[in-house]
């Protein structure tokens, strides 16, 4: 029984393949001989069909000649209907011949019967005959129109004068039977002369209106068009005369050419078949001899290959005690393979040790590379991608297919990166030193991107999400700036308060004195009023600097906000409305109720100013176990990031021309900071603003 390993061996497959090829060559040779014999028979059939087709062409040519010869007689008949009927019959015959001349699929038997000139003439005959039929139909229609108009003339009573009506009717009858445009024009002149005089008559009862002459006019118009169509028919017939002569001549010429070509093709085909038969027989003998020689050589070589294969398989299985295969042949290639086998065995031993070490290191590096929180991507000196991890694809806002993008297209979502710095075939790019940029995405994430060039010219991209760090840095800088402003405001308010105290004390001493006239008293009153205004300003500066008198007490925030609703409705004006969204179980917190009310009022006034067309101001309050959150939201014009950054600063305002002093939000910020809470603004241009005040619930009583 033949084993499966023997069937899969080269010693079996190569001889089997060669024998199978010989079988295929023999089969193909037999098929070719049979096909050539059949082709010779079909050549004779092709000649017969070609002669038949030429006979059909001659028949159509005679039919066209018959039509052309009979056309003058048809044109002189009273109805062009026969011309149209005969023309359509010729068109059908020409279409049938053209269809016969076309090759169908692999059947090329009609090829050569119809030359390009014959097909062109047949198409021209078809076109001219269709024109002839169309003109005949049009002439028939115009003839019918003239007859209908004559019927109206015969039955109508349009012209009252019997002599004039008899005269005009005779002219119109003659016009309907005229066969030339000259005769028709003469009749038209007589008709116009007779009717023009009647139209300008002095007696109203004998005067002819244009409406009464309409049937007569239609007779002349229809007869004119009829004669024009008949003239076109004569022109088409003349063209068909010339084309039919050309077609007859082309048919005779093509018949002679096809006959000569068929004879030449038959002789050439017979010679080619004879030569092909001899060539196929010699090729078959040569293939048979080569196959026998190849089988003997392959069987000898295959034994050496099998021995080498067994040795390689043993090495692949990890067997260490594998000797060189035994081979007694003298083929140079196999001798060299034996030497290479010995060298390969030594290399396999070394590579096996190195591979185990490298695989362990590669697993560690691959796991680290894929799971890094920072994104990394490597590109070659032409800007083509080498490798990258998923994190950098996410940070750049790409999908998984971005792994194949070149460098410049990969960084397109980051407009801060100048593409000219990066390589792109053949441009090397202008990047020399390490460059670091920060990019803010559409969802307000901040990504720090580092670009550096490698010694071989490639580019390394590093990216990490620094949104939290950037936010913390911005908040720290903002808090530090605001706290500095608050401390400065507090110091200035103390100094201003001290100076105003000296002024008011001195004014008290002056007011006790006597002897001042009325003008001096008015000046002292002005000084007193200015001092009081200065004292009020110093007090507002203390509130901004978180140093105003602070009197905390237990406050039910929900009840306080509900109680302010009516006052807030009045304060924000008629165009704006207050909407409360308060949790049902808000805690009682220790705050200064008056300052809280003032803060909410300031926020509502700012919200109404941001909505000049009016809208709804939403006051919300929620609480967790640690934080009480109060928010004021409007749908107004919103603020840019630059305005948000400076909104809590004293005397900063965007409404300077509308009475804004820039102290409202600063006072709110000072109150919240003095209460131990935080204040934040969320806004964008055109999307409204939300101000959130958070207080620790540890302040509850």
TrEMBL record:
Keyword field: Kinase, Membrane, Phosphoprotein, Transferase, Transmembrane, Transmembrane helix
Segments forming domain Histidine kinase: 491-699
Gene Ontology terms, MF aspect: phosphorelay sensor kinase activity
Domain HAMP residue range list: 299-353
Transmembrane residue ranges: 12-36, 276-295
Gene Ontology cellular-component terms listed: membrane
EC number: 2.7.13.3
InterPro entries named among the record's database cross-references: HAMP_dom (IPR003660), HATPase_C_sf (IPR036890), HATPase_dom (IPR003594), His_kinase_dom (IPR005467), HisK_dim/P_dom (IPR003661), HisK_dim/P_sf (IPR036097), PAS (IPR000014), PAS-like_dom_sf (IPR035965)
Superkingdom of origin: Bacteria
Main localization category: membrane
UniProt subcellular location: Membrane
Catalytic activity from the UniProt record: ATP + protein L-histidine = ADP + protein N-phospho-L-histidine
Class of the enzyme per the UniProt entry, highest EC level: transferase
Protein name as it appears in the record: histidine kinase
Organism: Rhizobium acidisoli
């Amino acid at each position: 029984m033949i084993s499966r390993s023997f069937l899969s061996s080269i010693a079996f497959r190569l001889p089997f393949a060669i024998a199978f090829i010989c079988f295929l060559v023999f089969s193909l040779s037999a098929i070719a001989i049979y096909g050539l014999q059949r082709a010779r028979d079909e050549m004779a059939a092709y000649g017969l069909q070609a002669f038949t087709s030429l006979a059909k062409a001659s028949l159509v040519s005679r039919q066209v000649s018959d039509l052309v010869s009979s056309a003058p007689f048809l044109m002189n008949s009273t109805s062009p209907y026969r011309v149209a009927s005969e023309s359509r019959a010729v068109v059908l015959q020409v279409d049938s011949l053209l269809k016969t001349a076309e090759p169908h699929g692999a059947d090329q038997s009609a090829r050569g019967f119809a030359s390009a000139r014959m097909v062109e003439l047949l198409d021209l005959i078809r076109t001219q005959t269709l024109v002839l039929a169309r003109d005949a139909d049009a002439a028939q229609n115009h003839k019918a129109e003239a007859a209908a108009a004559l019927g109206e003339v015969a039955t109508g009573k349009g012209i009252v004068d019997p002599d004039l009506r008899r005269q005009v009717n005779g002219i119109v009858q003659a016009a309907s039977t005229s066969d030339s445009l000259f005769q028709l024009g003469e009749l038209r002149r007589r008709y116009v002369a007779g009717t023009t005089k009647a139209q300008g008559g002095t007696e109203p009862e004998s005067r002819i209106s244009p409406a009464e002459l309409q049937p007569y006019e239609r007779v002349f118009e229809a007869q004119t068009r009829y004669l024009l169509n008949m003239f076109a028919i004569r022109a088409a017939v003349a063209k068909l005369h010339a084309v039919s002569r050309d077609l007859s001549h082309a048919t005779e010429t093509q018949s002679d050419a096809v006959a000569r070509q068929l004879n030449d093709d038959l002789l050439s085909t017979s010679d080619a078949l004879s030569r092909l038969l001899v060539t196929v027989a010699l090729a078959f003998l040569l293939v048979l001899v080569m196959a026998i020689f190849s089988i003997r050589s392959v069987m000898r070589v295959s034994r050496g290959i099998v021995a080498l294969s067994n040795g390689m398989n043993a090495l692949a299985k990890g067997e260490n005690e594998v000797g060189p295969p035994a081979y007694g042949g003298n083929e140079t290639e196999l001798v060299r393979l034996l030497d290479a086998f010995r060298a390969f065995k030594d290399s396999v031993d070394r590579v096996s040790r190195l591979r185990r070490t490298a695989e362990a290191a590669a697993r560690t590096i691959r796991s680290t590379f894929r799971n890094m929180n920072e994104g990394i991507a490597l590109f070659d000196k032409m800007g083509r991608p080498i490798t990258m991890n998923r994190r950098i694809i996410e940070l750049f806002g790409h999908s998984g297919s971005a792994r194949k993008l070149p460098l410049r297209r990969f960084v397109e979502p980051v407009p801060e990166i100048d593409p000219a710095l990066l390589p792109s075939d053949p441009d090397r790019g202008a990047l020399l030193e390490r460059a670091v940029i920060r990019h803010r995405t559409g969802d307000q994430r901040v990504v720090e991107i580092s670009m550096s060039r490698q010694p071989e010219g490639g580019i390394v991209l590093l990216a990490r999400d620094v949104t939290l760090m950037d936010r913390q840095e911005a908040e720290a800088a903002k808090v530090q700036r605001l706290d500095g402003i608050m401390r400065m405001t507090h110091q200035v308010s103390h100094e201003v308060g001290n100076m105003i105290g000296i002024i008011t004390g001195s004014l008290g001493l002056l007011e006790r004195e006597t002897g001042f006239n009325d003008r001096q008293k008015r000046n002292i009153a002005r000084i007193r009023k200015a001092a009081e205004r200065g004292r009020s300003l110093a007090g507002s500066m203390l509130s901004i600097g978180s140093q105003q008198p602070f009197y905390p007490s237990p406050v039910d925030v929900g009840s306080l906000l509900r109680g302010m609703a009516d006052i807030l409705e009045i304060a924000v004006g008629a165009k704006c409305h207050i909407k409360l969204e308060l949790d049902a179980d808000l805690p009682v917190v220790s705050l200064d109720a008056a300052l809280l009310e003032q803060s909410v009022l300031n926020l509502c006034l700012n919200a109404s100013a941001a909505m000049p067309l009016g809208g709804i101001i939403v006051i919300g309050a929620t609480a967790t176990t640690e934080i009480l959150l109060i928010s004021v939201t409007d749908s107004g014009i919103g603020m840019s990031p630059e305005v948000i950054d400076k909104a809590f600063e004293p005397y900063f305002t965007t409404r300077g021309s509308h009475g804004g002093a820039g102290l409202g939000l600063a006072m709110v910020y000072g109150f919240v900071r003095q209460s131990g809470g935080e204040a934040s603004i969320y806004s964008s241009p055109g999307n409204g603003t939300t101000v959130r005040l958070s207080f620790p619930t540890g302040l509850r009583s």
